[in-house]
Design brief:
Order of helices and strands: HHHHHHHHHHHHHHHH
Number of helices: 16
Number of strands: 0
Oligomer: single chain
């Protein structure tokens, strides 16, 4: 019950990522803002999330995982509700920044709590966590569309309400995990990045996340659809994220190895981004939905890689990895949207495809740092007695 309570709250937390997608044009219209100004909703959120990742381990090792989860949930509830009261883009961007702080405290700790409490081992726990991510990302646009079609403020109040439900579940169902034997230092996540494998994984993920959030943040402006239409497109995209992360990533890792899955997924994402750039309206919809497949693969494999490749404790490795990778999510929305406004709508996707190629180059040049992942893949294969599904 502890795991499922935490997973439910994680679903709602991840809904906050895609929640604003269907209402981005409505927010721009309602607050008389440009697309690039509205894109700062993502930038402030992920910039604060990235920086806050550096202190999540320090906080949780002192007050415990349960209290850290509750503190993160409380911050999200407060700032999501305040976001619904915004009268300007600046206010909304500021409240999203506070939301990002709460999200960082919750998300980073939730993964550690789920891994610690789940009975199926770290691999199964990570898949459950990624399933929560996929479900939240797919549900977020639907909730945003349904509530946003009524009023663009409603999704923010809706998220605050759902997060309050998650807080009650955590309070009542989660047994407080034991505190770490040693307290985590503030500089531990940065020092963990000195490990060649973790830094390779983190910086590859930074370029991947730039491509990921180019699709998420800029595409709503070129779809020229109602909130319901945008929500439907990104619901389909989110379903692809969820299914590929849970059902496709594990067997592919066993068959071709984690590093090869990352190469495959990055190449596919680059192809789909070029498809968005060169297509008409129907093609934009198709390639946007399909881009969820490589995104789901990447999310699962990158998370596992960050957990397994480093010799640092998992919460510390996760914090350092997330600090670097979420910077991609912070930079992409504003840069992509500004390029689309100033130069042309195809340019952001060309840049996103280029980022995928850079990520593949990092993986290839620094492949010797990722040998530990090959051993992990071999161990998974050796202990996997169930038949491997065919996809």
């Amino acid at each position: 019950m502890s795991v499922w309570a935490t997973a439910f709250a994680a679903v709602v937390a991840f809904m906050g990522i895609g929640l604003v997608d269907p209402i981005l044009p409505s927010i721009a219209q309602g607050l008389k803002a440009t697309p690039s100004q509205v894109s700062l909703l993502f930038t402030s959120y992920f910039l604060v999330t990235a920086v806050a990742m550096l202190v999540t381990g320090w906080v949780s090792s002192r007050i415990g995982g349960k209290r850290t989860l509750l503190a993160g949930l409380a911050l999200v509830i407060v700032f999501a509700a305040l976001a619904g009261t915004s009268t300007s883009v600046a206010e909304l961007v500021g409240f999203r920044a506070g939301w990002g702080l709460g999200n960082a405290l919750f998300v980073a700790t939730a993964l550690a709590v789920i891994v610690g409490a789940a009975s199926g081992g770290a691999e199964s726990a990570i898949i459950l966590y990624e399933a929560a991510l996929g479900l939240g990302i797919s549900a977020g646009p639907l909730v945003g569309a349904l509530l946003g079609d009524w009023n663009w403020r409603a999704p923010f109040f809706g998220t605050a309400t759902l997060m309050a439900v998650g807080l009650v579940l955590i309070v009542t169902l989660l047994k407080a995990p034991a505190r770490p034997a040693a307290r985590t230092g503030l500089t531990a996540p940065i020092r963990a990045l000195a490990h060649g494998g973790l830094s390779t994984t983190a910086f590859t993920a930074l370029f991947y996340n730039f491509a990921f959030f180019t699709v998420l943040a800029f595409t709503p402006f070129i779809l020229h659809m109602s909130p319901y239409g945008i929500g439907a497109v990104f619901f389909g995209w989110g379903v692809c994220v969820a299914l590929s992360s849970v059902f496709a990533a594990p067997p592919l890792q066993r068959r071709i190895g984690s590093v090869n899955v990352l190469h495959l997924a990055l190449a596919l994402l680059a192809v789909f981004q070029i498809g968005i750039a060169l297509s008409g309206h129907a093609g934009i919809i198709l390639f946007t939905v399909l881009s969820g497949i490589p995104i789901g693969l990447n999310n699962t494999v990158f998370t596992e890689a960050a957990m397994e490749v480093s010799d640092a404790p998992r919460p510390v490795a996760s914090a350092g990895y997330n600090f670097v990778r979420w910077m991609g999510g912070a930079l992409a929305p504003f840069i992509a949207t500004k390029l689309g406004e100033e130069i042309g709508v195809a340019v952001p996707y060309a840049l996103g495809a280029g980022c995928c190629l850079v990520g593949m180059a990092i993986l290839y040049v620094r492949r010797h740092h990722l040998r530990a992942l090959s051993r992990v893949d071999e161990d998974h294969t050796a202990h996997d007695t169930a038949p491997v599904p065919t996809y």
